[in-house]
Amino acid sequence: MIESARALGVGGSLARVSDARDSDLDAILARRAMLISTALAALSCGSGGEGSPSVHPTGSTTDRPAVTATASASQSARVPPAALRSWDEVLRDAPPRGIPASVKGAEAQQLEWLERGLSSEYDTVKGVWTGAPDCDAASPDCRSKWREVGKLAKAMYDQTRGPIVAGCGGAGGETATVIGRRAAHRRYVQKLITEAEEHLTAVAASFSPQGEQEWRKILANAKQPPPMPCLSPCAMPDVSTIVQSIAFAKDARDVRSDDAAVTAAIQAIVATFKANRAPSKIVVRGHADAGEKDPAELATARAKSVVALLLKAGLPKDSVTSVGLGADLPVERSDEKGNAAANQRVDFEAVATAKP
After folding, report:
1. What is the phi-psi region of residue 224: left when phi exceeds 0, alpha when psi lies from -120 to 50, beta otherwise?
2. For the chain, which domains are there?
3. pTM to 2 decimals?
4. CB contact at 8 A, 344 and 248
5. How far apart are alpha carbons 334 and 342 in whole angstroms?
6. Which of 124, 221, 245, 324 supports an S-S bond with 299, CB 3.0-4.6 Å?
7. Contact 185, 263 (CB under 8 A)
8. What is the pLDDT of residue 229?
9. Is the dihedral of CA 274, 276, 278, 284 positive or negative?
10. Radius of gyration of the chain (CA)
11. In sequence order, what are the beta bridge partners of 247?
């Protein structure tokens, strides 16, 4: 551009100055060239009169009135995304949360604590699920509404970051059923979070690109993890939680003793029993799905079949007992999606016994 300005004769009188002022000349010419290019650009962005082209946001060249008409048509043709499922449907499809009357003692209390925590989590997710504002997040009058949804999203992310196994170092004394239920709900809630994120982003984008950008900033801030808490020493439990379980085929009473997964679970339980610092007993708990034949009898048979494997692996006879819980404690909702398989299981509980 500087060379072009020289060719046009711009600043020709300065071209005859001494070589010592060449750098000043270049600077002056650069500024004048910039002024010329700015003036040319201004001419192309004029009032839109005939013969004065303007650039459409898509890159095409058109007259100013056409740009205005296109923008107005786009705004009036805004199509919001499809609505999410109703919250009643969300709860209907969630994993089980009930506390059966057949469950007593510590496990009933654990399930009650779990239920309280889940109720709080689902209430927070509901606020995000149903909270999409019907206005442009880029608008000053609406931005605060989207930020309120962002605060709910922040609480939602923070609530669902906790460990699957509660307690100090994952040794909260919870049963495998409680742990399994929490894991099932965590998976389900993560799906809800993904759906809600996608829906809110689509809603924001349906108003304007700037609105979508504003929401994405709010969302990114909501996802920032909270500060790590100060750590404190964690005492080793006297009796460890057992998280292993053994899956059964539909209506099956026994498992193959040579199955690698079964063998690994049995070995882990024996190792846990031997490592417990206090005298303990292993309770083998048989479960069935409500859709299986005679769930009560089937659950009892499954528990007894696994007791036999533990005894064969070397556990003392008086250190193992069994109980059949029928279909009372499912970890997944039994439906056509195949979730029933998670309920066809045997799990375990290590219980401290009185010292001799």
Report:
1. beta
2. 2-76 (no CATH), 87-222 (no CATH), 245-352 (3.30.1330.60)
3. 0.73
4. yes
5. 9
6. 324
7. no
8. 66
9. negative
10. 34
11. 345
76 CB-side CA count, 13 A: 6
β-bridge mates for residue 320, sequence order: 282
Indicate if the pLDDT at residue 141 is higher than 90: yes
Q: Which token pair is 271?
A: 């190792």
* Rounded-to-integer distance, Cα 195 and Cα 191, Å: 6
333: left (phi over 0), alpha (psi -120 to 50) or beta: beta
Gap between the Cα atoms of 207 and 200, Å rounded: 11
Q: Residue 199: is its pLDDT beyond 80?
A: yes
Contacts of 49 (CB under 8 A, 6+ apart): none
pLDDT tens-digit map of 304-316: 999 999 999 999 9
Percent of the chain with pLDDT over 70: 72
Q: What is the pLDDT of residue 236?
A: 74
Chain-centroid distance, C-alpha 117 = 17
Q: Is 266 helix (H, G, I), strand (E, B) or coil?
A: helix
The C-alpha angle 110, 116, 120, rounded to 5 degrees, equals 145
Burial of 11 (0-12, 13-18, 19+ CB in 10 A): middle
Mean pLDDT of 167-171: 52
Q: Where are the beta strands (DSSP E) in the chain?
A: 54-55, 61-62, 245-247, 280-286, 320-324, 345-352
* Rounded distance between C-alpha atoms, residue 4 and residue 18, angstroms: 21
* Sequential DSSP letters for 119-150: HHHHHHHHHHHT---SS-TTSHHHHHHHHHHH
The helix/strand/coil state of 352 is strand
At residue 175, the 3 state secondary structure works out as: coil
**Tokens read off for 306:** 């696994």
Token pair belonging to 248: 């059964």
User: Which of left, alpha, beta for 267 (phi over 0: left; psi -120 to 50: alpha)?
Assistant: alpha
